[in-house]
Amino acid sequence: MFQALANPVRRRLLEILAEAPCTAGDLGDRFELSRSSVAEHLKVLKDSGLVFDRSQGRHRIYELSAEPLAEVGDWLHPFERFWRARLSDIATIAEDL
């Protein structure tokens, strides 16, 4: 799953799907990539369990699968204190500038 999340295109696909389910064509229209490249990214996301698809007429509708992301969030939660401290340091520096 982390390998799937490591790619910025796949992260953007997840952000789009968090807003609403989409067809592969609608998703492909949002990128300057070939449709086959977008399809490959969707396959990786699907294989990792982060998205699922369903048939609607002649189209495949892709949707976000929230459960695996919740597992990632649960795993990352103990490390959040490190991010907060760093963000606080950055805010302090920015205020001083």
From TrEMBL:
Designated name of the protein: Putative ArsR family transcriptional regulator
Domain HTH arsR-type: 1-84
Source organism of this protein record: Gordonia soli NBRC 108243
Record SMART domains: HTH_ARSR
GO molecular function per UniProt: DNA-binding transcription factor activity
Top-level taxonomic group: Bacteria
UniProt-listed InterPro entries: ArsR-like_HTH, HTH_ArsR_DNA-bd_dom, WH-like_DNA-bd_sf, WH_DNA-bd_sf
